[in-house]
Amino acid sequence: MGTRASLLITCLVDTLFPDVGRASVAVLERVGVQVDVPLEQTCCGQMHQNAGHPKDATRLMRRTIDAFADADVVVSPSPSCAAQVVVHYPHLAEASGDAGLLREARALADRTKDLSTYLIEDLGIEDVQAPAFPHSVTYHPTCHGLRMLHIGDRPQRLLRRVPGIDLRELPQATSCCGFGGTFAVTNADVSTAMLTDKLRHVEGTGAEVLTAADSSCLMHMGGGLSRQRAGVRPMHYVEILAGSAR
């Protein structure tokens, strides 16, 4: 039996950015992984937790645990949602007082990875044989990937192997874009100020493409770039690796 992985596709990718899901499957299959996408999965519950509804978040955690009960490893193109499983699920389960749920939550957390970590650390692959991408690109490291999953520069290491890519450093890259799930809604003025700073740095690179590991952050920054008519395309890095967007 070959290497198998189950895809935590995330509700945002499923509903708004399906090309990111297709690209994730394409990259994993190209490196020899047999991909399963459990149809029972739905939202991981992060938004409910952020909004102060732990009971709803726990209910969705229960569903996610059941959906991936048979998975050897769970891989996600969203460090934000992967962090919900890896970091927050055990805390949610512990708060519920259900010892069985806590064991299951910890077990799922132990076998859940973001895509770049799975490729580099589990499979030992940095070159996914991506098609050429002859464009200038700057990379924004999203907060959950950087601070909760500590994925570091793994997405950039994968991008550096793409033929023809011109990867440009983003000034003050580690500062937040201002999205933060419900933060952009509950703190709109502060969020807008943070986004303005981020986009100024993005445009300063002169890059044609802004990439990141989370579609949510790209959606936020992409909206700002569109309103400014900046001419910079937002694109998930896995789409570049897959060769699905030229």
Number of strands: 8
Strand sequence of the main sheet, in spatial order?
2-1-3-4
Distinct helical segment count:
13
Measured between the Cα atoms of the first and last residue, the distance is 34 Å
Structural Rg = 18 Å
Low-confidence stretches: none
What overall geometry do the principal axes of the alpha carbons give? globular
Elements, N to C (H/E): EHHEHHEHHEHEHHEHHEHEH
Helix and strand content put the structural class at alpha/beta
Determine the fraction of residues in helical runs and give it as a percent range. 40-55%
The pLDDT mean sits at 94
Largest sheet: 4 strands, parallel
Percent of sequence in beta strands:
5-15%
Question: How would you characterize the overall build of this protein?
Answer:
The protein is an alpha/beta fold and 246 residues long. It has 13 helices and 8 strands. The strands form 2 sheets. A 4-stranded parallel beta sheet has the order 2-1-3-4, sandwiched between helices. Strand 7, helix 12 and strand 8 form a beta-alpha-beta unit. Helix 5 runs antiparallel to helix 6 and helix 11 packs across helix 12. It is globular and about 50 Å long.
Write a brief caption for the model.
The chain has helices spanning 11-15, 18-30, 46-50, 54-67, 79-96, 99-110, 115-122, 143-148, 154-159, 183-186, 188-204, 215-227, 237-242; strands at residues 4-7, 34-36, 74-76, 112-114, 136-140, 166-168, 209-212, 233-236. It is α/β, with parallel strands linked by helices and 246 residues long.
